[in-house]
Design goal:
This protein has 15 helices and 5 strands. The chain is α/β, with parallel strands linked by helices and 353 residues long.
């Protein structure tokens, strides 16, 4: 353990350094002036500081305040050596961060006892800090492992849902990627954007509960078939909603909300405006854009310009106007993904890594 000693009296400095060196496990580093000590910082390493109060230019309190400006030393224990028994002086030292005092002339036995006690306390605190760092690393490792498992679960569920319709897999990958870009343009945190990329591909997971004759129909739905298809939002929410995983809970929220409308005319709960979860409002835009710009059994693919114009027109009725603004801001990146020749490189693969 290293003891910093600062005293402008050479004899006192030599004595204090010698006494510090007699404490088991301790060595001393000394400075004859406060300026020299400050000049050595913040590269200087020490565990305990012993500072004389009466010194020129900087007294002990002034020096202690200057040392405390360095983040590195803010938790270090300091002892002030003084011949002044004035209460105000001691209060100033305590307010500056001193935790103990030694009175001149310094008693060697008292000095060693105080430094030994402070060294033991410092060592215990360092051990606790090391333990806290270890626990933090272990928690981070477990959280990362859980996160990876959640991502794999989402990937596998989405993959399973795509087996009935291969185009569904590509659609879900694009919607995840588009949703992340819209969320980023909206101003959400990097973590929230990443979560949305992972959860959004599950927006249509409820389609596993739709009969094949409806799900795979090549043509316009009857009113009854349309009602059946609309049930995929509630089914998806039921499949995912009981999970304790935060990602799966987000996916359940999206599954239920991505067909709600800003004006309250959507389904399944006819929620309106900001009552619709933000994730659902973002995915609604991403899902619609991809649906419009790809071939469906009931329609050809729209051009990008036509699809963008449609989404703009629906801002304030079908879509959250702020989500539409974010979509427009992210549009160049969205188009880059849409026109990519390697759609398998987006979203789902990222989730599996």
């Amino acid at each position: 353990m290293k003891i910093l000693v600062v005293d402008d009296n050479k004899t006192n400095l030599t004595l204090l350094k010698k006494l510090a060196g007699t404490v088991e496990g301790c060595s001393a580093v000394g400075f004859i002036s406060p300026e020299d000590a400050l000049h050595a910082m913040p590269e200087l390493d020490f565990d305990i500081g012993v500072i004389d109060f009466q010194m020129p230019v900087y007294n002990g309190v002034d020096l202690l305040l200057e040392i405390r400006r360095f983040e590195k030393y803010r938790d270090k224990p300091f002892v002030v050596v003084t011949a002044d028994g004035d209460t105000q002086t001691r209060m100033s030292a305590l307010n500056a961060g001193a935790i103990d005092f030694l009175t001149k002339p310094v008693n060697p036995l008292e000095f060693r006892a105080r430094i030994r006690n402070l060294a033991a306390l410092t060592d215990a605190r360092n051990q606790l800090a090391d333990r806290a760092d270890w626990l933090r690393r272990e928690v981070d490792k477990v959280v990362q492992e859980l996160r990876e498992r959640e991502q794999e679960i989402i990937y596998r569920l989405t993959l399973a849902a795509s087996y009935k319709d291969p185009e569904t897999a590509l659609h879900t990958m694009r919607v995840g990627a588009y949703s992340e870009l819209i969320a980023k343009a909206y101003g959400l945190s990097a973590e929230a954007c990443a979560d949305l990329r992972l959860a959004a591909p599950m927006h249509d997971i409820g389609k596993v509960g739709i009969p094949d004759n409806v799900l795979l129909k090549r043509g316009i739905y009857t009113e009854s078939e349309r009602s059946q298809m609309q049930c995929h939002t509630s089914i998806g929410s039921q499949i995912l909603g009981q999970s304790r995983s935060s990602l799966l809970q987000l996916a359940a929220e999206i599954a239920e909300a991505h067909h709600e409308r800003w004006d309250g005319q959507g389904y399944p709960r006819r929620k309106k405006g900001e009552d619709i979860p933000l994730a659902g409002r973002i995915v609604a835009v991403a899902d619609s854009f991809d649906a419009l710009t790809t071939v469906r059994p009931y329609k050809p693919a729209w051009s990008v310009d036509k699809a963008v114009s449609h989404i703009r027109e629906k801002a304030g009725s079908q879509f959250d106007p702020n989500c539409v603004k974010a979509f427009e801001k992210a549009l160049p990146e969205i188009i880059a993904i849409m026109t990519s020749q390697e759609p398998h490189n987006i979203s789902l693969v990222a989730a599996a890594e």
